[in-house]
UniProtKB/TrEMBL annotation, chains A, B, C, D:
Belongs to the class-III pyridoxal-phosphate-dependent aminotransferase family. GO terms for molecular function: diaminobutyrate-2-oxoglutarate transaminase activity; diaminobutyrate-pyruvate transaminase activity; pyridoxal phosphate binding. It comes from the Bacteria. Its cofactor is pyridoxal 5'-phosphate. Its EC number is 2.6.1.76. GO terms for biological process: ectoine biosynthetic process. The keyword Transferase applies. This is Diaminobutyrate--2-oxoglutarate transaminase. The lineage of its organism: Bacteria, Pseudomonadati, Spirochaetota, Spirochaetia, Spirochaetales. Pfam families: Aminotran_3. Pathway: Amine and polyamine biosynthesis; ectoine biosynthesis; L-ectoine from L-aspartate 4-semialdehyde: step 1/3. Keywords: Aminotransferase, Pyridoxal phosphate, Transferase.
Amino acid sequence: MSTSTQNTTDDPSQKHDATDLGIFETLESEVRSYIRNFPILFTKAKDHLMWDADGNEYVDFFSGAGALNYGHNNPDLQKKLVDYILRDGIAHSLDMATDAKKEFLEAFQDIILKPRLLDYKVMFPGPTGTNAVESALKLARKVKGRDSVISFTNAYHGMTLGSLAITGNAFKRTGAGLPLTNSVAMPYANYLNEEMDTLAYMEHFLKDNGSGVDLPAAIILETVQGEGGINVASLAWIRDLEDLCRRWDIMLIVDDVQAGCGRTGTFFSFEEAGITPDIVCISKSISGYGLPMALTLIKPEHDVFGPGEHNGTFRGNNLAFVTATETLKFWQDDSLTKKIRAQEKMIEESLGKIVQACPKLKAEHRGRGFMQGLVCHANGTAKDVCREAFSRGLIMETSGPNSEVAKLFPPITISDAGLKRGLELLEQAAAAVNDNL
Amino acid sequence: MSTSTQNTTDDPSQKHDATDLGIFETLESEVRSYIRNFPILFTKAKDHLMWDADGNEYVDFFSGAGALNYGHNNPDLQKKLVDYILRDGIAHSLDMATDAKKEFLEAFQDIILKPRLLDYKVMFPGPTGTNAVESALKLARKVKGRDSVISFTNAYHGMTLGSLAITGNAFKRTGAGLPLTNSVAMPYANYLNEEMDTLAYMEHFLKDNGSGVDLPAAIILETVQGEGGINVASLAWIRDLEDLCRRWDIMLIVDDVQAGCGRTGTFFSFEEAGITPDIVCISKSISGYGLPMALTLIKPEHDVFGPGEHNGTFRGNNLAFVTATETLKFWQDDSLTKKIRAQEKMIEESLGKIVQACPKLKAEHRGRGFMQGLVCHANGTAKDVCREAFSRGLIMETSGPNSEVAKLFPPITISDAGLKRGLELLEQAAAAVNDNL
Amino acid sequence: MSTSTQNTTDDPSQKHDATDLGIFETLESEVRSYIRNFPILFTKAKDHLMWDADGNEYVDFFSGAGALNYGHNNPDLQKKLVDYILRDGIAHSLDMATDAKKEFLEAFQDIILKPRLLDYKVMFPGPTGTNAVESALKLARKVKGRDSVISFTNAYHGMTLGSLAITGNAFKRTGAGLPLTNSVAMPYANYLNEEMDTLAYMEHFLKDNGSGVDLPAAIILETVQGEGGINVASLAWIRDLEDLCRRWDIMLIVDDVQAGCGRTGTFFSFEEAGITPDIVCISKSISGYGLPMALTLIKPEHDVFGPGEHNGTFRGNNLAFVTATETLKFWQDDSLTKKIRAQEKMIEESLGKIVQACPKLKAEHRGRGFMQGLVCHANGTAKDVCREAFSRGLIMETSGPNSEVAKLFPPITISDAGLKRGLELLEQAAAAVNDNL
Amino acid sequence: MSTSTQNTTDDPSQKHDATDLGIFETLESEVRSYIRNFPILFTKAKDHLMWDADGNEYVDFFSGAGALNYGHNNPDLQKKLVDYILRDGIAHSLDMATDAKKEFLEAFQDIILKPRLLDYKVMFPGPTGTNAVESALKLARKVKGRDSVISFTNAYHGMTLGSLAITGNAFKRTGAGLPLTNSVAMPYANYLNEEMDTLAYMEHFLKDNGSGVDLPAAIILETVQGEGGINVASLAWIRDLEDLCRRWDIMLIVDDVQAGCGRTGTFFSFEEAGITPDIVCISKSISGYGLPMALTLIKPEHDVFGPGEHNGTFRGNNLAFVTATETLKFWQDDSLTKKIRAQEKMIEESLGKIVQACPKLKAEHRGRGFMQGLVCHANGTAKDVCREAFSRGLIMETSGPNSEVAKLFPPITISDAGLKRGLELLEQAAAAVNDNL
């Protein structure tokens, strides 16, 4: 079918030059960013591959910053999506009832919640991660009647005002043009060093009536910090945090926008730790096709918003519901988890090799599941590695407060061959940077 | 084609019962709202029509709260969308360059900006109206180095913390769980009565060094307030506001999320007034297909965000770019505007009839273009009218702080026959409510 | 006695030159202000008179900005004060019990509260007006569980962060270096013109669920605005405001720091209006001798602070209690009120004369009791009048957002002769300014 | 003289009963606190002694919470004060020039600033510690153009909104009825234990662009925390903090309201550390007589307030200037410092004895100079010790977030005999509590 419907005038390779980015430079705001790292016109993508307008092929170890965990244009999702569109399924419905939404809810309950013994009400906020986070913050403050929320150093939760107040990055915070208030930054696991018990430290502030840190409505956690530099909290630390929250009657919010939907190997990133957050924020790969969608999962006892107390025009993006439902089939058994566990080792081996082979990068390896990073302590070299990688046909971004981490985010559905190819390109890129130092 | 690809297992009418909403009631959060007004399972839509799972047909005078100005599943948009998907076009790209984005930018420049002599840089914030508003607020505060923003009574700008602070509705404001700060509410046009010059009043506060109202970074305006109750500012008032902003060096932000994209008859709602805002927020119908997308238009001299200073995962929703580009063809000439102007009169006549025929509603008519409302001063009757309408197969919502306005939002592409049918259903519904009082 | 204890080395006229202000110019911060208007070294004062180091005499129509309502060094107060000091009475006691505090409480109850049928608990905040206001704001927010407080245009309530947020003056607000939040400025009586009903306007915002103005914990009122420009609210307006507060369950705070302690003719400025505020802030002239002292009066049902929840080192300034007790004797009968009423007419006549005789000042007269002002609409002329007055030996300041009001604040205990002399100096000064225009 | 002027009707012992506190209980607000710990009517005081209305004598180890460092009614101060009053010196002058203010400025420059090579401009804020702190915060934010201020755990800076936001105590913070914003609490010296380098920890947050802690305008320090529990920062730590502030371009504010004016043995508490803060807040004992007065000392390059940008009615409390000038004579040589150093050892020995003799209190000793404390880790015993002490005629208060520290604040001018007597009473009280456990 894909051939028959393709129409020659729509073939982008006949219309565009891959290096002509003039309209972006003249018309788009200076706020544009990734186009500066990957200055090429892309026109096609499938699974872990992308092509530019000149037909050059790229391996994608970026995955839409975690929004394309199942790769580009997954054929099963694609088929469901096109069928739904062509039969005039409802595209946009706010929070009216549609069959697409109903089927998603049923599948989410049957495949995700029930087998994990999770009892959550499902809220559809606006279709972005920051909207899920904003709804979670509002809800926690309403439930507890407290103003403040504790977030962690190097947290990233979004760019709207409420989420930005709990985001660590100084450059992004400055963008607010306002003091960012009602939040307290506490040290993440291993923030200063391996020895300091950051939770004991935080609890000391809670215990001390004179600490100046008010009892918060909630603590918001990323189990692995993606934007913050692939910082991994141990499962024990995560469990201790949940325990601390219970003892102090603080709500625990897990922002699983980036680490969720399989990125760490299980559907939720917190499954291995065995905790049950009060609220879970989900977005990015929930639709599986890169379509905007977000969920806020709420323990039933905290489901206290009145009708419409939080809303948004695009909370009913049914095309996303259709593909989201289809992705859940990946989670009907543990085969995907097993595959990720196996391939995770391939990634770690490759990164271990680079650390050894490229001493000038002063690199170390960090990560969990398919959230892996090569921390390059030699100043600027992580960016160099990504630049070199791109010139070799591998798409990767950096993260961390000083862009010091080359971040590996391949699709979790990638084949062994695809993964190997990408890792080889990375090894070559790292070696080239190392040799030039 | 629609028939051939339709596959029997996907036929929702064979799988669903229109009145079985159990999963929504048990699993979805209590925050759900429209499903309470329209308690039926919808499965299909085309143009101004929707169908439920039992095959019942509804006329849609709601249009996704303004996100479906071109109707449901417009065939031209549908074709472009499916073609793009099937040729493995990039679905999700953050702010990397794609052909879909390039074509949108070119068309937006050629068809929208240039003919209107508008010189704006285009920013792609997260794909929701509130994200466009948050980016506008951040930018204005950064440009002017001032904290405060003036918004108007009964304004609606979104549910994330920054936008909520400039939204009037008390119920929604309470949801924040926090004091909402750095904003001042000033009276909208004709807020108290027809006589009071609300701009002179506001300017008195600005002039008076002792007023306690700080010089704001920006004033944010909806030219017609949709959620606030179909309140219409006159073109003269809008021009005077722009003039006031110029005299006081205040940025003028037009939130055209709901009133833009043709809803008032022109692409931007402020065209008739002849003003040039410093920032324009666009979302809802910009994709034309109900797909999440938003734009922040910025005068070049204010384009001061650094790369990535505001960002978001779904700013590159390419499926939306594809349909958005296609919608711009409607604006290549003035035929759509003329059609809207003609049909606007049909709506006004119908509403005028109702006002006369249904005295117990104590109704009056308000509106501009295809933003029309029947204000029912008899307590609760606007809701009754909408309920009656739905029982007759017409979908309409209420707006206003006390849900006192029955709001007519038909697709701007609706046929005369479709419009007439909807208006007749409304007239019947109003008569029924009136008779029962 | 005054002679015998006076010691020649302490005679300032032998040690100081009235025009040598060098140490102030080199060592004191640029924030100093009144010394710039009255650039002379003062060394002695009695009743309504002050003397500089060279022995020049000045009539004081300033009265320490309302802190010296009973004149300088009132002999009865002076005697009590010296006796107390010499018998080693407790000078400073925080909120421990002392005889001086006990006697003040008893007298305040017997002479002030009981005869006026006022049932208030007395709180001693830190000994300044802003401290009384801060304690009132905290208490109101605690009692009502609401964040916001409504204040009026051109209000002046103090310079600490909470009070500054409800103060109108833009220059002073800027000093905060922070956004000033949790307050809303509403138009004072006759703010725009005589016709507009500013309370109806405010109530419209409260009634409208979409106004964007949250229900406040309290409304804070100065019955006459001193710093704001001698703006007088009518008794009817004040009563209507109390009524509005009752209907909306809003606490009414009267900031009587400047207008209280007899300045308007009665002990409290709100007595004539017949209202009973929920909280009253008192300071300035409560000690009667210019000694720092403040009171927060609280209806018993709102007395909800826990022990020490608001405190301060100098809440027990016993020297002030001693003189404060003595001042209350002025209020044992209505003789002082009658005297003020009579002299008020003298002031009004004199100002009326100036308005007539000095047309170039474009002056009008405003005021109530001994809070009188000559508003000079000709730009800068109020300052000129005060400068001319000072050169003639009359001390007066300006007020209003643009220093457009020459403010008459003679001691309320001034003799007819003293008042007449001051008024004549003012008339001469005004005439001189008028003639020079 | 004291006898001759004493007048029998003013003799409080003839008028009052020491245990009759009825008027306080019925008329004063529940916010009253010290009267609950010391429920007796005091009528007279001299040096380190107080007497109640029945003539009972008490040793004062409280010193007005540090406002009476030179004891009660110091005869030299008393004489100057009475002379000034009797010669009709100006009592209240706002910030007009008076001889009393001039003499204070000259003496402060000559005796305090010059010999210490300190170059400060002197600002007179309202006459309370919190007013000095509020003015310092405003100034620092204005100078640096940054919003946030770092304060320390268990800091106490005052009760008005700006100061309260940087005060640690949870009970007092709750009183605000508002979120307290624009401040960050960092761990004071030895906050968690002796090992953790709390400045390195804080600097880690400043260095890390992703920490979520914004670069502050200022860091505000008490060199010894009085209210916070007699927590002592080492001189090295204080120097390191100054160094950190210089490296990060952060203003260093020392709140010397309680620790200054000789309490630690030198006039400023930071002299021994050898640092030069950007701003110093002084109040409490600056007048030496318990009269309300405060100073904000500002490095000349930061003296950027405009005239009147911060003001206050009682900034010109001339009676306080008179006694303040007289106190400076104590600092013309180092005799007072030497005396304090000698007596400090007596206190430490006594506390050491108690720690040994009273094991059930689980006590330890903390302090510097005349800020000494007995920390009683056995729950509630510090309060018991103070209660027992009071019953024996010794006035002491507790401090610390859980009132776990018995705080010794004798006058710094106390005689050896007086100090010994107080310490013996404390030893007896501690023993009694220990024996009863």
